[in-house]
């Protein structure tokens, strides 16, 4: 499983991610789609939250930076920009600014892995593996206030949050789908990423400097 993740991080792929957040008797569903050249650290993705106050956002990753369109208070043609390594996650099991490589980092760190059998994913026969994520992996690059809340929940539970991780790998050793899930008393998050077009070139258009505004933080449910 770790070999499959390591191989993808030296390649490129398209991806579709579905995130389901349940809490306070409501369920919110986000979709994220795009392409990413993990070897070159470049990619483009679009995020949609039907019915949200801001229902669409775009992120461009290039040259160690993330460009974000659709930030509240910015113009239609203006992009916020910040250093990629400074982005933080503001929600449980969300990646900083939806960075897909963050998801791969977490999946690669799963523990107590067991094989669950074979399943078809998108018409492809795969081997299904399941494991758990420890507290360190679950809180990887989370904002300090979020980490504090997760720490308190962990203390109340008397142990790590029940976070499960799954990976589906095809016969060529390629990662096809990954999933992370946590559910506690009616509050939960499920994040599922399906990969495709492995090895296909990913084209990225970087916004012009005149169309960008430097920022030090970007929050909001669309942005992780």
From TrEMBL:
It comes from the Bacteria. InterPro entries: LolA/LolB/LppX, LppX/LprAFG. Keywords: Cell membrane, Lipoprotein, Membrane. Pfam families: LppX_LprAFG. Its main location: other. It is found in: Cell envelope. Belongs to the LppX/LprAFG lipoprotein family. This is LppX_LprAFG lipoprotein.
